[in-house]
Each structure stands twice: as structure tokens, then as C-alpha cells.
Amino acid sequence: MSDWVKRWVMPTWFWASPGEREEDGYLWVRRHGEGIAAGLSGLLILLAWWTSGFTQVTGIVLYLAAYAIGGFAKAREGLTALFTEKKLDVNLLMLVAAMGAASIGYWMEGALLIFIFALSGALERYSEQRSQRDLSALLSLQPQSALLWDGTEEREVPIRVLRPGDRVLVKPGAQLPVDGKVVEGASEVNQSTITGESVPVGKQPGDGVFAGTMNGTGSLVVEMTRPADESTFSKILRLVEEAKGQEPPSQRKIERFEGIYAKTVILVTVLLLLGPPLLWGWSWNDTVYRAMVFLVVASPCAVVASIMPAVLSAMSNGARQGLLFKGGAYVESLSEVRVVAFDKTGTLTRGELAVTDVLPLDGREENEVLMAAASLEILSEHPIARAVVAEAKNRALSPERPDAFQSVTGHGVRGEWRGSRWRIGKPAWILSDVPPDLKRLEADGKTVVALAEGEVPIGLIALRDQIRPEAKRAVQALQRQGMEVVMLTGDRRQTAKAIAQEAGIRKVEAELLPEEKVAAIQRWEREVGPVAMVGDGVNDAPALATARVGIAMGAAGSDVALDTARVVLMNDDLGKVSEAIALGRRTWRIVKQNLVFALAVIGLLIMANFTNGISLPLGVIGHEGSTLLVIVNGLRLLR
């Protein structure tokens, strides 16, 4: 068949295989073809019902069109499963039931079965497609080249040609291309993509560095210690891809149930067609009628409708509350969660440093210390500098540009201001003695900088990432639900414990690399139960993918976290985590109610058909009535 015919004459959903390349104008049709087909099928059923009063032939033709359009996608799935996977599934069984109804003259009943099943499949496919986002944001962060350094000159080479022992030059502001250790130079490295630390970390010869992190103002020569495909950043990529490819346990159970159910119904139908005429002398017409009634009442419309309408209603409910579920399976997964793990930086906290204490020394005033510090830092883009300047402006101070300014890598800054020489930076660079206040502030998990005029220290400024105002209430709500709440962070242990205590979290695991977060989640799942991970950064992506449910911060979260997570908090409200779990539990209670009811009705109808016999219209009324009731029950979740 020519490409021209494929593109413009035949509808794309008719012929395109799942693996075929998606491009040009028919991509939209590929994505929405099942929904379009279900809608057309429903319209044709209405037209057939209306016209059948005038001419029966027209009605039958329209019903046949409804069968073909509404049932094609499911027929294709069923036949593909039958011939390629040697598996008989519910898709094929449903179509056989509908054709059986039509074969004995009940066209509308069969067409309605097709329509309901096609619509359910279209809604399910749509919800699945919403979760199929690629890892382009994460992949774009992966280093592609490096400056190979031989001691005298640099040469740009692809990452893949580097080997452990090679040395690379990392210029100021550049991305570190490899995992290794610093052999020359000093700088501060922003490694929040790996560890989640909110403050850049000073690096000197002998210190380890990670690929994918960002260098500060100094130059570094780094000796590669691990091949590129074994770097921490590469592990993040692999962990995310592997975890996203894992099928949820409930999906495997449903697939197994579908196969057993479909085979059982087909087997019983064959026995009904062959047994009664041979054993009891039934007429062929009576036998076919009873077998078709069985096919209709045993068709799984009510069973299928037990799940998706309820799940989709829960997803709509969540969307109105600022909860985005990327697929229906994750509503169920939330109902099973027993442990909620929080990242610290950007999740429990705002992800921005703020000044918490200004402690004058040498008889100075607070505002005097803050004014001098902000004036020195006003030219710097360091997170600490921005926080100090912001605090000064909050106190209605007006920092002035220094007369001279110099950044001292790994220590702080020095400059001249109002005729004096000043220094601000790490306490060890400024102070000869350690005052008690410094130990107290650091014990509280705060970052402390010291300020000196000449050689005389005049003040300490403490900063800390501020906890979100709703964090404590969110943790308490989860604990009331019986959840075990833990913190998993790459930040320093002291800082993590201080934030955890403020939030009311008793279990803390700190200084974790991404793969260590994954190991912690796997351990918690083995020891306690399914884990929900709440995070926002690139470093959280493997943990978000590994957890039973990954929950990302919508506004503050990185693109990678948003792509990887199964649930997104659109307004960054941590209180929605407990609401999401409650919604998941309520949804699955209703799903279980629906399944029990649907299976009970099917069982009663089958029993009645085997004992006293029931008419096909009565069987359809019982079957469709049960379908309608379970849908209405699921729609309660919209409230």
C-alpha cells in the first residue's frame, strides 16, 4: 500500500502498528483514535435506533458500522494477543459476545456492549498516555564532552573516550564531566543535582566530585576515577529507566485474571453449544439461544466498569485539589502505601537560604553587622550572599557597593568599604577562637559565616533553608493515618536532624547519594511496606522511580522529577500527600465493592441461565443494569 494512501485515505488508527514511526499530521489521530472511534460508534447507535423504526435494513447497516468502528481497535488488540502471544483476553471475548447477540437479532444490545467497552478502553488509553513523557530533561544534563588536560594544553574530547586516570580541566562555571577527585585548584561546586545540598561545597585537592554538577568560580583539574557509564549521573539515568519499565503488580494480576476468565467463558460456551443437543436432545435454535445468553451475561462490561470510572473520577477529584495522577494504577498504589519518605531541600524546605540569626561581636549592633556584610556580598551571586542581601533589604537597609571586591575560593570574599578592609566567609578563615554561639548555631543545623573588620571579628550570621509552613501539619496528618514518616536527604546529618525535629519526623537518613536513597527505599519496603517518595530534584529521580509511588513538587520540582514521578503536587502543598493517600484508599474500597457486586450479578445471571433459563433481553438488562450501577458508584468519587 502506498504511503499516500496510508496518509490520506485510510484512518491512521486502522493500519498503523504500535511500533511504526509517529510523525506529521496523523500523530494526533494515533493518540486519540480510540476516543474518536468510540464517539462515532455511540452516534451510529443513536442513529440506528432512530431509523430502525422506519426501515430495519438501515438500522442494521448502521449497527454494523457501529460494530466495525467501535470494535476495531479492541479486535485488533485481541487478535494480536491471540496470534502473537498465544493469549485469549477479554477484548476478544467481549467482541464475540457482541457478535453473538447480533447473530440472534439483538443488534442494539451487542452494539451497546461494544460502545461501553470501546469508551472504557479509550479513557484508559488516554490516562496511560499522560504518563508517557520522555527523559529529555534529564538526558540534556548529561555531559557530552570534556577538556582532556596533559599538564600543558587542553583538548576537547567526547566523554566516551576517557578512561580512569585521565585528567580533565574544569573551567569556572562549567559542568563537571566525570566522577573523580580534585588534583589541582580549588573551587566551590554546586552538587544539588546529585546530593540535594542547598549550599555549594568547597573542593580542594583530594576531594571527590561528581559528573553533572556545576563548578563555581575557580578552576579545577580532576582525575577521573570511574568510567563514564559507571558515574553517579549515569546510574541516575539507568535507575530511572529501569524503574519506569517495571509493571505494577496489580496490572500483572489483572492480565492473569483476564486470560483465565476469557478461556473459561469460551470453554463453557463451546460446551453449551455441543453438550445439550448431544446429551438432552435440545434443538439447535434453543442451544444457540442459550449459549448466546450466556455469552452476553458473562461478558465483563461490569467488571471492567468497576475499575476505570472510579479511578478516573478519583483522578478528576485529585485534579481539582491540585493533585495530578499520571495514571490510574497509581491511585491504587497509593492505597497500599505504608511509608512516606520526604526529601529535605526543596520539599520539606523552601530550597532557599534565609538569615536566621545575626550575632554582633566586639560591641557592634545587629544592623551594623548586617549592613557591612550585605555591602560586601552585594556583588556576589553565591546563595549565601543573596540571602544576606535580601535580609538587609527586609530590614530597610540599603547596602552600598564596596570600593574593592575579591572572591577567595574556598574561603569567602574580601573587600574595602567605607575606608576599611573587610572579610566575610567561613568561620575558620575569620576566627582564631571558636565562640560558644558558633557551636550552638552549627548544632542547630545552620550554616554560619563570620564577618571581620581588619583582623577584628565583629559578627556571626547564621542561615538555614526554611521549612515550609505546612510541613509539620502534613507530617502529623500522615502519622494519624498510620504512616511511617522518614526523611531521606543528601544534606549534612546535623542540618537534616534539625529540620526533621522541626517537622516532627523521627526517622532521618542523611548524607545519601542517589543510589543510597534507592537502597533505603528498598529496605523500608522490605521491612515495613510500600513506600511513597516525595521529592523535587534531579537527585531524587531514582528514588521517585523506585518507590511504589513517586510524588513530585509541581512548582518547585525539576523537570526530571516531574517526568519521573507518578503523582504531582501542583501547588507544592505537602498537606495534599495525606489527601492523596486517603483518596487512593477510598477509591480502592469502591473498586472492591464494584468488583464484588459485578461478579455477583454475573454469577447470578449465569446460574439463572443454567437452571430456569432467562431471556436475552432480561440478560442484557441485568448485565447493563449492573454496569450502570457500578459506574454510578464510581462517580461518587467526583465529590
Task: Describe this structure as you would to a colleague.
- The longest helix has about 35 residues, at about 575-610.
- The strands form 4 sheets. The protein has a 7-stranded mixed β-sheet with strand order 10-22-21-20-11-18-19, with helices on both faces. The chain has a 6-stranded antiparallel β-sheet with strand order 2-1-3-9-4-7, with no helix packed on it.
- Mean pLDDT is about 80; it is low at about 1-25 and about 130-135.
- It starts with a helix and ends with a helix.
- It is an alpha+beta fold and about 650 residues long.
- It has 25 helices and 22 strands.
Based on the model shown, name its key terms.
single chain; 639 residues; alpha+beta; Calcium-transporting ATPase, cytoplasmic transduction domain A; Calcium-transporting ATPase, cytoplasmic domain N; 7-stranded mixed β-sheet; 6-stranded antiparallel β-sheet; 25 helices; membrane
